């Protein structure tokens, strides 16, 4: 089975081969019809210039922030494209090189020094003239007089002439006149006189000045991910700070009268606020700087003030909660006071009710997702994580997907794209096998303990209502930091 890089969405007809899980042998082929035109972006790269504008005429709009009598129904792709089109591009900032780890370089870093800055030995041995090694063999070594010794570190300049050698350690500065380093194992290791057992070409085991990076060379190019190797190179060329694309700032809030803080024992009908913790952690894993603001106040004036403060310091505001269908929810009213946020039904499960808008003076994107924890994490993966990666300047916005054999029957509602938390593993005969952590039926995927055991999302297309055991499904591995 090959890796699928189309986010698991296909066009046309897909041939699904069933495999006997005990032998790995194909036992039949089933043809699954796919809805034409429902596939989104054919690659995992999104060109920001090609994304639709938020005010585009094709997107259904309402004049009210409340859900209308005939709710707006969007495909997953339509809702995602709205969010990606509105994702801001934070201005580059200058950070200390260690703080820049994991970010993209926002400048061409040009070296103003040579690396290495002097001729040095590549390994332990004897610095010598290549002309003095001509004809040297194991049976007939060439003898040279040893006139000095150098270790790596500060050293006074030295020189050698014909018939002379200088003992050197790896990294030590070469004496003037030497153009080779004879490895110790190719000599008799003499102290005053050394026998050389091999003939060497000029430059052998010598690190030349500027060989790695020369003055004027690009040390780290624009949009290069900064990892340990890039940090070492930046330090080597003398850069203490570097311009980078910063981490997006994500404010995470939880809405719901049933919520209590994690330090309190929930009473009857109450549940602990886990979404603000889980979503802040997911945002950080995606590369963002997350502010966990916790449970929203139940007073509208205080809630509006809180939202206004988050809009001032955030690039995205993320709110998880169960919102009223008639539009008269406290959070919806507070959002309406600050601008327009459209609540819509998205053709996905779990969590079809989603919302999006832009509020405040700077039009900060506000994303509302379901309050049920498993559904909230699914919505984050599908809509918020790609936006964070776009804001980071990443080329690959979406997790890679693979095709896997389903270990059991999976059921899915017609017309909805189903996301199931599952466990995917390598099949002994090759490929992958996956099974949902809570069973294949809708509603069995909600338990937090089961979700915590999952290592992937199983994606079932909108027109598929059943996947038989042994059928192929699309799987999105949930690798930390991936």
UniProtKB/TrEMBL annotation:
Origin species: Klenkia terrae
Family under the similarity heading: Belongs to the MoeA family.
Keyword Transcription listed: no
Protein name (record): Molybdopterin molybdenumtransferase
Residues annotated as domain MoaB/Mog: 251-390
Gene name of the record: glp
Keywords assigned: Magnesium, Metal-binding, Molybdenum, Molybdenum cofactor biosynthesis, Transferase
Main function: Catalyzes the insertion of molybdate into adenylated molybdopterin with the concomitant release of AMP.
Annotated PANTHER family: GEPHYRIN, MOLYBDOPTERIN BIOSYNTHESIS PROTEIN
Lineage: Bacteria, Bacillati, Actinomycetota, Actinomycetes, Geodermatophilales
Catalytic activity: adenylyl-molybdopterin + molybdate = Mo-molybdopterin + AMP + H(+)
